[in-house]
Design a protein that fits this description.
The complex is a heterodimer. Chain A contains 17 helices and twelve strands. Chain A is an alpha/beta fold. Chain A starts with 27 loop residues before the first helix and ends with a helix. Chain B folds into two domains: 237 residues, Type I PLP-dependent aspartate aminotransferase-like (Major domain) (Aspartate Aminotransferase, domain 2); 120 residues, Aspartate Aminotransferase, domain 1 (Alpha-Beta Complex). Helix content of chain B is 42%, strand content 12%. Chain B is built from 18 helices and twelve strands. In chain B, the strands form three sheets. In chain B, strands 2-8-7-6-5-3-4 form a seven-stranded mixed beta sheet, with helices on both faces. Chain B has a three-stranded antiparallel beta sheet with strand order 9-12-11. In chain B, helix 7 packs parallel to helix 8. Chain B starts with 8 loop residues before the first helix and ends in an 11-residue tail after the last helix. Classes of the chains: A alpha/beta, B alpha/beta. Chain B: InterPro entries: Aminotrans_V_dom, PyrdxlP-dep_Trfase, PyrdxlP-dep_Trfase_major. Chain B: It holds the Pfam family Aminotran_5. Chain B: This is Aminotransferase class V domain-containing protein. Chain B: It comes from Hibiscus trionum (Flower of an hour).
Chain lengths: 451, 450
């Protein structure tokens, strides 16, 4: 079984560790200061959606912003490009890429998806691909990525295979077997699979996917290219792009790696085709390679791309650096997940070792969460009435499939709880008590609409 | 000031007394010179910053407003995403709609910059070719002086898709609007040769290098006469620099950066898309959840990022209305001052302006002494670096290759800008720097390479 999170005491060569006396490590009170701009009293257990950024990094960002405003021409000619290259070098080291040319900085995973898929679209338009050539994705792929596939693949004449993954999930084998089956089905119609898009950590519901194994299967099955959408990965699981072996790998740095909104890296393995990747916003650097194109897409604020070295400094104030942070987040989120499941009499959506810094926790069936709308309503209710911020997932029941039950009925709703360094036990107790209160009051989701 | 850009002076005047609806009453006091100094006190005081055209500028009070919005997001991003972001973007779009005289707020999308807007417009052209709506070899027409990034975008999305690109050569220095109109007509004729259709004309409202105000209203009318499918006006320098009125100009697409001359922080631009065209085919290239809900809605969410620059437009309007005459007062004064400074410089150097005053906006091209020996783009860049590093002057330099038969003429022009924070001293500093180089018989050949 693949362990994606760092084990006790395991330090990767990519940590850039500076030897530190224990007295120099960041303290609890330092951490509170660093995140003192977060809204107090809100139990912020949704780091997964929009991430978070500590004060010292925001200060570094402001410094870059003011430098530009002070004398933008000098900044453009003398400072910007070197600053972006420095960030790319840091990331190359963190992810174990071979060469900094393989690392481009873009706004977010959504932009990276557009880059990869636009090329697929061009291949159809230019006759390199035939009508009905296929792109494979997970059924629970991020909505924005699904739309991007619609915009660039379906529109261009390509077809799509969706891999349905079981949820709740019990083992990696379940995922691997479903994945293999879908590929077989796809190939059985004589279609050629041009690209597989695989999440490293799915968003909703959130599960850590055995990407290395799935990439290997893709190679065995002759799938031309593999794109790993790892929006949540860096700072929450180990990221080693050579080990994963995909052609493209993207992760947001503003989710779990303390960067301000927004910045992501797109790794593109060097190959003959990587020269035909372009940023969709075409500017002066068109044709000079994706990293250089992405470093100038017109006048805008590039400061979030420039703070990566400052973020590394921040991360290294923690014992164990990013590895230490990842381990602690994982241990805590599992602990909190179990605490909630026990209190509510429900379940976890996946085994602990298929989670990173987020985990799905079943909601009591008595809440009668029966639709997407119910999930949205409950989320708003928790925000407005209980000051708890947590995303909610509606698990539609499959025909003929045995759902998971609690003592009162089928579990159809899950919360996705996150743990980041600023979270405290109180955050999860607040959620626990809010749900228990709703159940105690006999509330169902339907009733929330009229409140 | 003479009528420019297809709008009459009367139209310009009718907007002078427009006050924002945000204020009850009374209006806050007008800025004093020392207020303005304070608002731009973050600019490097050692630099004569006469290049507002490239990267724009943003006053302190708008930066503060932006910081406030950034903190609001960081404080509770989920709440901001669900409850604040879209209403605030809509508010900005509504203000812009009024400023540009668009019919409906649906016609106004907010994007990062004109470069992004170009990608949006050109991508639908590429689909036109890919989906067989256009024939291989159908044409796109653009000005020879189109912005470099736009030319690359045309290459990426039009040439690559099978389109044929025609560049309209424009004379420079230019003496009259007629010269431009004549060249444009000729280029359209070329476009229509061999049964080709001209699918798109890309017309700058204010060219970048060399800078000249183009008679867009007239050129758009010619495009309609000649059966051009779509007209896209690239007015990166438009809003806050020249008069803009969507209905008057009549283009299908019109984009302008708000961070250049409209005091917004980097970066924000609007893309106007006339409702009558088939809007359903316009998409932001970064596809997210809102795909298919219309360009304006798509552009309002393209993944997690900092949208704060798009949200300060109301605050910018407040700032502008503390100037005498609001934005029209600012434009008028900028224009008059840049012409005055330009004339001062050409007199001091014995050169000439690149165009008549009525064909410039708040920027003008000023000929540099021929003895500097500017003989390539590299020379221009090296001279610019020298001016920045040795003299503390920031100004972009343009190299214009000599025409046949020309000898010893002016081959280099500086593009000077004038904006509310500029002072006469900035231009004296530039004048003196060039005079010193001339006095010391410095030529570009002897400058260090940047």
């Amino acid at each position: 079984m693949q362990h994606e999170y760092p084990r006790n005491g395991e330090l990767t060569h990519r940590s850039f560790k500076k030897p530190k006396l224990s007295s120099e490590f960041i303290t609890e009170s330092d951490i509170r200061d660093e995140f003192s701009h977060h809204q107090p009293r809100v139990a912020r257990i949704n780091n997964g959606s929009f991430g978070s950024c500590p004060d010292s990094v925001l200060t570094a960002q402001r410094h870059w912003q003011l430098q530009f405003l002070r004398q933008p021409d000098a900044f453009y000619f003398n400072t910007l490009r070197d600053g972006i290259t420095a960030s790319r070098e840091v990331i190359k080291g963190l992810i174990n890429a071979d060469h900094v040319d393989e690392v481009s900085l873009v706004d977010n995973a959504t932009t990276a998806a557009a880059i990869v898929l636009q090329r697929i679209g061009r291949s159809f338009a230019e006759g390199k691909f035939q009508k009905n050539d296929t792109v494979l994705m997970l059924h629970c792929a991020f909505q924005a990525v699904k739309k991007s596939i619609q915009a660039y693949v379906t529109r261009a004449g390509g077809s799509v295979i969706e891999v349905r993954l079981p949820f709740p999930v019990n083992s990696e084998e379940q995922i691997i077997s479903e994945f293999k089956k879908s590929i077989e089905d796809g190939k059985s119609n004589g279609r050629k699979i041009r690209l597989a898009i695989i999440d490293h950590i799915t968003s909703m519901p959130s599960v850590v996917i055995p990407v290395k194994e799935l990439v290997r299967i893709c190679r065995e099955e002759g799938i031309e290219q593999v794109f790993v959408d790892a929006a949540h990965a860096i700072g929450s699981v180990k990221v080693d792009v050579k080990e994963v072996g995909a052609d493209f790998y993207v992760s947001n740095l503003h989710k779990w790696f303390f960067c301000p909104p927004s910045v992501a890296f797109l790794y593109c393995k060097k190959s003959t085709s990587s020269s035909d990747l372009h940023h969709p916003v075409v500017s002066h650097e068109y044709g000079n390679g994706l990293p250089i194109e992405s470093a100038w897409i017109g006048t805008r604020d590039y400061s979030s791309q420039l703070v990566v070295p400052a973020v590394l400094e921040f991360v290294n104030r923690f014992e164990g650096g990013i590895d230490g942070i990842m381990k602690k987040n994982h241990d805590e989120v599992v602990k909190m997940g179990k605490m909630l499941a026990e209190s509510w009499g429900t379940n976890l959506g996946s085994p602990p070792d298929m989670s990173a810094a987020m985990i799905m926790v079943g909601l009591p069936s008595r809440l009668c969460l029966n639709s997407e709308e119910d999930a949205v309503m409950l989320r708003s209710h928790l925000r407005d009435r209980y000051e708890v911020e947590v995303p909610i997932f509606h698990q539609a029941s499959e025909d003929g499939e045995e759902g998971v039950r609690d003592k009162d009925g089928f579990i159809t709703g899950y919360v996705r709880i996150s743990h980041q360094v600023y979270n405290t036990l109180e955050d999860y107790e607040k959620l626990r008590d809010a749900i228990n209160q709703l159940v105690e009051d006999g509330k169902t989701c339907k009733m929330l609409y009229t409140e | 000031m003479a009528a420019v850009n297809g709008t009459s002076a009367a139209d310009a005047n009718s907007q002078i007394h427009k006050k924002p609806r945000l204020y009850a009453d009374p209006s806050p006091p007008l800025f004093t010179p020392s207020d303005i100094l304070y608002e731009f006190s973050h600019h490097d005081p050692t630099v004569a910053r006469i290049n507002n055209g490239s990267f724009g500028s943003c006053p302190s009070s708008v930066i503060s407003a932006q910081n406030e919005l950034q903190i609001q997001w960081l404080r509770q991003p989920d709440d901001f995403y669900f409850n604040q972001l879209q209403p605030k973007i809509l508010q900005s779009r509504t203000i812009i709609k009024d400023l540009i005289n668009a019919d409906h707020v649906d016609e106004v999308s907010i994007v990062d910059n004109a470069t992004t807007a170009a990608a949006i417009v050109l991508q639908q052209i590429a689909w036109g070719f890919a989906e067989g709506k256009f024939n291989h070899g159908d044409a796109a027409v653009m000005l020879h002086y189109a912005y470099g990034a736009v030319k690359k975008s045309v290459e990426a999305y039009v040439t690559r898709a099978g389109g044929y690109v025609i560049e309209v050569p424009l004379p420079f220095p230019v003496n009259s609007v007629d010269e431009i109109v004549h060249e444009f007509r000729q280029a359209l004729q070329r476009g229509k040769q061999n049964g080709r259709r001209v699918r798109l004309a890309v017309i700058d409202h204010v060219t970048s290098m060399p800078t000249v105000v183009i008679p867009v209203k007239e050129l758009v009318a010619i495009c309609r006469e000649e059966g051009v499918d779509q007209v896209f006006v690239d007015a990166a320098h438009g809003i806050g620099c020249v008069d803009i009125d969507m209905k008057q100009i009549g283009a299908d697409f019109y984009t302008s950066n708000l961070h250049k001359w409209y005091f917004c922080p980097p970066s924000v631009a609007f893309l106007y898309c006339k409702r009558s065209i088939n809007n359903s085919d316009l998409h932001h290239p970064v596809v997210s959840h809102e795909y298919g809900n219309g360009l304006a809605i798509e552009s309002g969410w393209i993944g997690t990022r900092d949208y704060s620059a798009q949200l300060v437009v109301p605050k910018v309007l407040e700032f502008i209305n503390r100037f005498e005459g609001g934005i029209n007062g600012i434009k008028k004064r900028n224009h008059e001052c840049v012409v005055e400074m330009g004339q001062m410089l050409v007199e001091a150097w014995g050169t000439h302006l690149g165009c008549p005053p009525e064909m410039c906006s708040s920027m003008v091209m000023v000929g540099l002494p021929a003895c500097l020996g500017i003989s390539s783009d590299h020379d221009a860049l090296n001279l610019r670096t020298c001016l920045r590093e040795k003299f503390g002057v920031e100004v972009p330099i343009y190299y214009r290759s000599p025409k046949d038969g020309e000898d010893g003429g002016v081959t280099g022009y500086a593009r000077i800008s004038y904006h509310v924070y500029n002072k006469v001293d900035d231009y004296y500093k530039f004048r003196d720097a060039i005079n010193q180089l001339v006095h010391n018989a410095v030529t570009c050949a002897s400058l260090p390479i940047s």
